[in-house]
Amino acid sequence: MRVVSLVPSLTETVAASAPGVLIGATDWCSHPPGLDVTRVGGTKNPDVEQILALAPDLVIANEEENREPDLAALRAAGVEVLVTEVRNVPQAFRELTRVLDACGVTARPRWLDEAERTWTSLPAPERRTTAVVPIWRRPWMVLGRDTFAGDVLTRLGVDHLYATHEDRYPRIPLDTLRAASPDVVLLPDEPYRFTADDGPEAFPGLPCVLVSGRHLTWYGPSLGEAPGVVCGALRAGRR
């Protein structure tokens, strides 16, 4: 089996569960560190010709992270393309199982069982927290409805204020975000790389918490660590 992954979290998933199967991944596929495969461009602009030259048996993609024209071009060239859709935590586990099955993994990985147990046995949150969750600036964009990251936060006791917005990633003026007065502004380091020096200064007077984007938005081996990492960041940010 020869697999090219166009999704960072699925790259990590396959690398952890089927060593040697991956032959290509995007430039953004940063885990596992040191992964030695051919890099095929970005998630939004993969090099289709380079992918075809690798002669993969399967390309794995995601309906949100990858563009349909690129996937259509791969299919037209005779390549099998598996496209995942992940909008919540239970769906993530179903789709991960589907991907691993397609990659020829016959024994369910231990990390997947442990991650699923972690999420099905979460304690009830001691308190609920309101949040605004920017994912981009220039223009400012935030988590809206029907997103995996939003479901992660909801299950961890965080109610993001644009969860019922008509758009999944609405553009909201900065003044409006400030006026919403959330308990916390949650700033992940991807897709936009918010840092201590780039993000918090836009929200004077509001608590800002930096959080690992991998643990907020990726569905893969990081799922098992995600509750502890995200909740730990929130606790530290509220002190």
What would the principal axes of the Cα set say about the shape? globular
The tally of strands reads 11
- Category from helices, strands and their pairing: alpha/beta
Strand order of the largest sheet: 3-2-1-4-5
Task: Describe the protein in words.
With 239 residues, the chain is of the alpha/beta class. The protein starts with a strand and ends with a helix. Strands 3-2-1-4-5 form a 5-stranded parallel β-sheet, sandwiched between helices. A 4-stranded parallel β-sheet has the order 9-6-10-11. It contains 9 helices and 11 strands. It has helices spanning 8-17, 48-53, 68-76, 89-102, 110-120, 148-155, 174-179, 213-217, 226-238; strands at residues 3-5, 22-25, 38-39, 58-62, 81-84, 129-132, 134-136, 141-142, 158-160, 184-188, 208-211. 37% of the residues are buried. A hairpin with a 4-residue loop joins strand 7 and strand 8. It is globular, with a radius of gyration of 18 Å.
